[in-house]
């Protein structure tokens, strides 16, 4: 019986640790209050269940545990925060299952524990799935400066020079925005162009999003697609692509953001912030909405519309919470970089908002 208690004690520690790691991901990586409280309540319910077995810790013998010195190289390999949370989810179900199986040997004293742990294991599967989906949808969309690249807007340089200079200036995401009705590329030429953009961006570790066209995004190897309120629905895209693609959705109020989140969006466009000549926008929601969005906090957001590196505009964005830890706010600009003689300098000036 002592060995069984030792096994249960070791696995109880694993469960507690795994739940903590998952909770931190929901809290700090995703800002997801619902998921965070689900995991927290699992932690509390597990503590109540395990407390039914008296004196578990008395069987602990960490120094005499032969398993502490047995490890595999993969245990030390995690390529990103997403992998850390995914590994914790796997550990959680393994440890719960071990407690459940060995708990059966405890006889009557273990019956309630086994039942409670079985239920926790099922809850764990659901939470693990929600966490992994949320991480694969939105974990990689925390950008600071996104360039909406439109070829016909590049007045002073080729699109290639604008793109490369902007990347040097600190752009970490590029949205390819070609509008056929405004002289932009379409069809085969659009796909070829997008492939060139992807090549340049990915070599510099910059993400690529294609405006409006999920099909083109897939064909050119982009990271995702951006859709507006009148475009194809985010839910339809998720049905089609699962977690393979990032999906951005334009929003002008929290109700739209909430809907986008429910449909599996990765990030939201948040705007328009200021008057713009790039797109016909009747209503300017301004930095007030940006602040509401940042406090809502379920998805990363890109402020958009008329953004320039003027002291006044940057101050307004800063005042709304951009650059603040935990707000997950970046900006998306088009004209100010595409139309500039010095696209790299403009990008760097915008990016300075995040440097303290
Ligand atoms: C980051 C970001 N936010 C908003 C938009 C606008 O999208 P949409 O409303 O679909 O308008 P078009 O860009 O398609 O004209 C965006 N593209 N990017
Ligand atoms: C596409 C779009 N959607 C809302 S405002 C806007 C235009 C952004 O361009 P600019 O940065 O030139 O104002
Ligand atoms: Mg659109």
Can you tell me about this structure?
The chain is of the alpha/beta class and 356 residues long. The protein has two domains: 134 residues; 210 residues, TIM Barrel, CATH 3.20.20.70. The protein contains 13 helices and eight strands. Strands 1-2-3-4-5-6-7-8 form an eight-stranded parallel barrel, surrounded by eight helices. β6, α10 and β7 form a beta-alpha-beta unit. α6 packs across α7. The protein is elongated. Bound molecules: the ligand Cc1ncc(COP(=O)(O)OP(=O)(O)O)c(N)n1, 4-methyl-5-hydroxyethylthiazole phosphate (TZP) and magnesium ion.
Q: Record the strand order, biggest sheet.
A: 1-2-3-4-5-6-7-8
CATH architecture of the largest domain: Alpha-Beta Barrel
> First CA to last CA: what distance?
58 Å
- β content, as a range? 5-15%
Alpha-beta classification: alpha/beta
CATH fourth-tier homologous superfamily of the largest domain: Aldolase class I
Compounds present?
A: the ligand Cc1ncc(COP(=O)(O)OP(=O)(O)O)c(N)n1, 4-methyl-5-hydroxyethylthiazole phosphate, magnesium ion
Give the % helix.
40-55%
Number of domains: 2
The largest β sheet comes out as: 8 strands, parallel, barrel
DSSP summary: helix tally: 13
What overall form do the CA principal axes indicate? Answer: elongated
Unreliable spans are: none
Using the CA coordinates, give the radius of gyration: 25 Å
User: What is the CATH topology assignment of the largest domain?
Assistant: TIM Barrel
Overall pLDDT level: 93
Q: Would you count the extended β strands for me?
A: 8
- Spell the H/E element sequence: HHHHEHEHEHEHEHEHEHEHH
CATH class of the largest domain: Alpha Beta
EC number: 2.5.1.3
Pfam families: ThiD2 (PF17792), TMP-TENI (PF02581)
Domain ThiD2: 6-129
GO biological process, one term: thiamine diphosphate biosynthetic process
